[in-house]
Every structure is written in C-alpha cells, then in structure tokens.
Amino acid sequence: MTKRQRVLATFAMTASVVVLAGCGGGGGGGNAASEEVDFSAAPTGALNAWGFENADDVGQARLDYAAEQLSDVDIKIEATAFDAQKFTAATASGQVPDVVQMSSQFVGTYAAKDLILPLDDCLSANDVESSHWYDSVIEDVTYDDSIYAVPQFYQPPAIIVNTRLLEAAGLAPEDIDTSDHEGLVSQVASLYKESGGNPSTLGMNPDLPGLAGLWFLGNGGSIMDDEGKPTLDDPKNVETLEFLKELTDAQGGYAKVKSFIDTFDMFGAENQYVKDQVASGIYAQWYPNVLAATQANITINAVPFKDQDGNPFTVASGTAFVVPKGAKNPAAACAWALGLTSDEAWMAAGDARATTIEEDPDPNRMNTGLFTGSPTADQAIREKYVVPTGNAGFDQVINTYYEVVGEGRSFGSSAAGQEIQTELQTGVTAALNGEKSPEEALADAQQAAQRAWDQTTGN
Fold this sequence. Notes:
Layout: H1 3-10, E1 45-50, H2 57-69, E2 73-78, H3 84-93, E3 99-103, H4 107-112, H5 120-125, H6 135-140, E4 142-143, E5 146-147, E6 150-152, E7 157-162, H7 163-168, H8 181-191, E8 193-195, E9 198-201, H9 212-218, H10 235-249, H11 254-261, E10 280-284, H12 287-291, E11 300-303, E12 314-315, E13 319-322, H13 330-340, H14 343-359, H15 375-385, H16 392-404, E14 408-409, H17 417-432, H18 438-457
Parallel strand pairs: 1-2, 1-3, 12-14
Antiparallel strand pairs: 3-13, 4-5, 6-13, 7-10, 7-11, 8-9
Helix pairs in contact: 2-13, 2-14, 9-10, 14-15, 17-18
C-alpha cells in the first residue's frame, strides 16, 4: 500500500486519538479539577495532546495554523490511536492530557462519567457559536444540554453505483432506491451474479454491520431516545433488520457477502468497481478520492441514501476534541481545538490539499473537497477548489455528496454510547448470520446496552 493509500485508509477507521500520559505543564486556566475553569484565560504554557495519528497534508496544515495562533503555547502531541482503557486509567491516575481526540459517538459516555469538561464556556469565551457546525454534528457531542466536544470532520455516506453494470441490466442509478425495500431487493437480486455458488458481483454492498444504524434511522427507527437510553429493539429496527437479512440472502447470504467483500482490492488498481464486483455500494465521502486513481477503468455515478419517505438522508459521524477533567491547561486546550476547526484552519488545509494535488505526478488526482463538519468551511473550500474534473461521472458523484451533507441526522448522545454501538454491531451480525431471529438479536442487544446505561446513569 502506498503512502497516499495509507492516508486515505485512515478515513475508513474510527477515531484516531493521541494519548500522552504525562503531567501537563502550567498555563492559562489552572487545574480543571477545581469547580471553576477559566476558559477565557490567555493560552500559555505547555499543552499536552492526544491526536493526529498519521497526520496527512490536511492535518499538518491545520496543526501549523493552530500553532501560529498560539505562539505562547508549547504544544506536544503524541500520535497514537485512541485507547479507551488507557484513557480511563489516565483519568483515574490524574495524569491526563489537556486535550484528546475521540469518536463523537463516545463523547456522551465520558460526559456521563464526569471524565470530560462541558465546553459551552470554552465556545463563548472565544466567541464561537454552535452554528459553526452542522446541527447533526453538534448534536452528536451534546449531552444533558451541554456541549462536551469540539467536532471535526463529517464524511457523509452515499451510494456509488457502477453505471455500466446498471445499464447492462436495463437500470438507471435512481433505481437503486433505499426507500423502496421491496423494489431494492428485486433490483439487487437482478444485478447479483455468482460463480461456483459464491458471489462474483454484488447488486449492493450495504456495508453491514457497520452502517446498520444508518439503515435503522433511515427507516424511522432509532438506537437511543432523547435521554440517551438505548432503543435497539425498536419495532422499526426489527423491521429494517428483517429487510437487511432479505437483502443479503438475495446475494448468497451474509457470510458469503462478507467473505467476498473481504477480497476487494479496495485501495488498489483492481478495486471492486474496476473488476465489476459491485453494482452499487454505500461509501463515505472520502472514497471517491481512492477511486479517482482508476477513473479510466470505471464508470460511476452516485445517488443519495433515502429515508422511508424518499428524502435524501445521511448520518453524522466523525471525531471530536474533548478536554479531560483534571487537565492542567484547559484554556490552551480550548483555544487549540477551536483553532484547528476554524474556517481559517480549514482553508489552510484546503490550500495544502490543492498544492498536493497540483504537485502530484498522477494525472488522475482530483479535488473532491474537504468535509469538515462546518458548513461555512465546506462551502468556502468547494467554491475555491472544487472545479469540473473532466470526468462527468466523478463530477456527479462529488456533487451528490455535497447535496447530502446538509441532510444529516445525529444518532444521539448517550451515557452508554460505546456499548450501544458495540451491541448494535453484535446483534445485527447474529441476525444476518441466522444465529438468531432479528427480533431475538435486537432484544438481546437491547438488554446488554440497557444494563450498561443503567450502570452508568445509576438507574
């Protein structure tokens, strides 16, 4: 795998977070373990951060911009992936970093455990409004009516279709319609091909169990209520999971579908669109950057994922910065996180990415934009750098992602956020494998997630 492929691959993973288990040096704000934290204090002193594992040109440009704005702060970053056990141990020992990058889905869990600080005062002290981010993005990091993290990134999923396979079957991209379950199963089955009893072409890669939550919410279900209490056994979820089993069974069954997907050269010259191994699939916004390298050998379009009413639909996701309780330099942590996610920092990142593309000898490189979690930053980067590529299919794909990004919905924020996501994946996998009925699988998942929620909330 090339360096560029490794960088792109990191977008497919959940949060990358840096952990530095050392004492933070003094500086503005004092010790956050006290009752009052002064986020308005001048950012000075040492700042210890966990985050930016394998920073690419976009990440480095933002780091450089934030460092320039905080010339009186000595910023130290340890770039390792987020480790929940290590973070919990660090908070228990009192040896916490000043700022940590984690998945937005985990923020509610640590807020409920009183391990991270609410950041409403951080935002107000720096004249930043929550409207700087998409509503769905900020809802992901809001717990008990307080904002507990500074969001970054939001790559919405959409459906990339293989137009040559659809045309050969007499279908158009809009025939891949997730709001019409019966019709979708029929279309997917007509596109499916097998060889020797195993899949050779999938009608659709539904990305399961990873995007099960997208399917649930899109069909009117939920994975938690407004208080964060798990709702995995919602009847609409059961209905959706029954449909998803039907969808995978129409393509040889989940085990064969998963095994086939595992063979894809997803980041390579022989990817699934080059080899016609998929007629359609749900992929996040970063993936067209990968496919661009093989644009001469693929024909693609994109259609939005649609909810039960036929409206474009997507879900928020991404990483965020939190300030642990007990941080030695919360004022600098706040200023740094906001600096990294400011429109100016994102434009610096856009400039860096444009330069990288211009200097890349690969003629297939194209600018698909940056999806930052901030509508103003997204639009500014699009207006300056996203120009016609010369490939009508890719231009349509890029436009589709820009069209759906504002349609996002939050999964919600919960004291059992981590456990809900884990049990969701476990339950869906059990049902798709036929180990349990969809109703039984989600009932068991709900019971386990409920126990976690009860333990965390004290119910």
